Amino acid sequence: MSPHVVFIGMPGAGKSTVGRAVARALNLPFADSDSLIIQRTGKSVSEVFSEFGEAGFRAIEADVIAKALRDFGGVLALGGGSVTSPATQRALRGHRVFLIDADDEVLAERIAHSHNVRPLLQADPHGGVARLRAQRDSLYRRLATDVVYSTSGPVAGVAEQVMAMLEPSYTPLSVGGEAGYTVHIGRGLRQRITQIVGSAPAALIVYAPEVPLAEYAQQVAIDLQRAGTAAYLFELPRGEAAKSFSTVQAAWDRAGELQLGRDAVLVAIGGGATTDVGGFIAATWLRGIPFINVSTTLLGMVDAAVGGKTGINTRFGKNLVGAFYPPRAVLCDLNVLATVPVEEIRSGLAEVIKCGFISDRAILEVVAEHGQRVLDTGANGPIHELVERSVAVKSAVVSSDLKESGIREILNYGHTLGHAIELHEHYHRRHGEAVAIGCVFAAALAEAMHIAPAGFTDLHRSAFAAVGLPVSYQGVSRKELLHAMHSDKKVRGGRLRFVLLAGIGEPTVVTDPPREALAKAFEAVGL
């Protein structure tokens, strides 16, 4: 048993008042560490301070909190200074921890009119608050999973904020393997970045240049700086243009100027291109520093950010230079999708539908039921379920095959032709659009080779077309696309290899398919 939620923060922030209100709303018991100390010792907090000194008080407090975090199943509020104990810091790991923050003036005013003035603040509330802020603020922000701000108004408003944040809980999905990590899927996850960065002395934040993402990156930098981590911003070129050697070299130069050591962290904020190149920068600087993927597009969430594949493009093809390098964590903040153009959401759905075909039929059922409504990224739509299911598919695959030596190839379903289309169009075609066409091609190839049942191609067409994705392609010769496909990473000995499906969730790999079958597959996509 453990607390449903824990509150931390400066003296006067309203932790106990808010905690009681939240406990009532959740129909759970409430406790605060000061009351637990009084129960343990039979003395007031002031008396314990006087008798044992601050060090003795902190030892008793840490022991009381450790027991409560193990055995108490309600809402718990901690004393302002409790976070200074390393034992308490360790004990808080894995708990839902809310930091309640307020301006120093508000805190000092509350303390001045409190009947329970803290011993450390008796003489000078304003000076004491400033001093404690300098000592503790970075600790609060590192330990908190969520932050809410209190003002001079009623604390009931703060309790309402907390309840709203508790309702849309996030889903943690584990990716196993030699270097396992967690994918966090939910809403309002920005504060978790600070927690995951932890005690790193410095962070390089690489981000896509779109205005919402630039603002998001700047706020992350502020959060980290408040927590005591020196944060530096590095803006990438837009889209696939970021995935170049010149970009990586510029990032290396910036890291060198900042003297970033192996204890630094890289935070990549953006879509698939950003997380691809950000991970490659992290993998190669000082032979590898930790990095965190903060995916801000649907395509990135369900594909590029998860799996540990990093890379850049060359003029011969996409992702031909890279490294397998797992992140420390991946965050999929669904709230950010509200800032993404609908065309990008549609593009990301191609990878979602692909996951349905290769492994999870329920994804296809959700798409069939909702149609174009799956483009709605609001809290009442099916987007959370689709992202969670798609990430679960990819997590299961990469957990057993990080370096694409076996089963992981199934994630490339539709990508052989898809990447060829992207290469031919100099990456101006959206990845998801190309993959949708590639999946229809692969289904038609499987049908032509009598691997898949009749109607399998039509099933693909209807699934992708239901959300407005293209299922045909013109404007280039078959010969040009075949030439481009020979640059695919799956090619062995100059022979084409395709991931095909015998049915939903039944992958197989085919080498050197007959010309007649390829011709029928090309015909199926309008070529």
Keywords:
527 residues, seven-stranded mixed sheet, 16 strands, 48% helix, 16% strand
Question: How many beta-strand runs?
Answer: 16
Q: Give me the side-by-side strand order of the main sheet.
A: 6-7-14-11-10-8-9
Structural class by SSE content: alpha/beta
Major beta-sheet overview: 7 strands, mixed
Measure the end-to-end span.
Answer: 62 Å
Instruction: Report the mean per-residue pLDDT as an integer.
Output: 87
Determine the number of helices (DSSP H or I, runs of at least 4 residues): 20
Q: Give the CA-based shape.
A: elongated
The portion of residues assigned to helices is 40-55%
Strand content: 15-25%
Give the low-confidence spans.
none
Report the radius of gyration as a whole number of Å.
Answer: 27 Å
Describe the protein's architecture and organization:
This protein is α/β, with parallel strands linked by helices. The chain contains 20 helices and 16 strands. A seven-stranded mixed β-sheet has the order 6-7-14-11-10-8-9, with helices on both faces. A hairpin with a 2-residue loop joins strand 15 and strand 16. The longest helix is centred in the first third of the chain and has 27 residues. The termini are far apart. The mean pLDDT is 87.
Give a summary of the structure in a few sentences:
With 527 residues, this protein is an alpha/beta fold. The chain is 48% helix and 16% strand.
Secondary structure layout plus pairing:
Layout: E1 5-9, H1 15-26, E2 30-32, H2 33-41, H3 45-71, E3 75-77, H4 86-91, E4 97-101, H5 104-112, H6 125-143, E5 146-149, H7 156-166, E6 171-175, E7 181-186, H8 190-197, E8 202-207, H9 211-226, E9 230-235, H10 245-258, E10 265-270, H11 272-284, E11 291-295, H12 298-304, E12 309-314, E13 317-324, E14 329-333, H13 342-358, H14 361-370, H15 383-400, H16 415-424, H17 431-448, H18 456-465, H19 478-485, E15 497-503, E16 506-511, H20 515-524
Parallel strand pairs: 1-3, 1-4, 2-3, 4-5, 7-14, 8-9, 8-10, 10-11, 11-14
Antiparallel strand pairs: 6-7, 12-13, 15-16
Helix pairs in contact: 1-7, 2-3, 5-6, 10-11, 11-12, 12-13, 12-15, 13-14, 13-15, 13-17, 16-17, 16-19, 17-18, 17-20
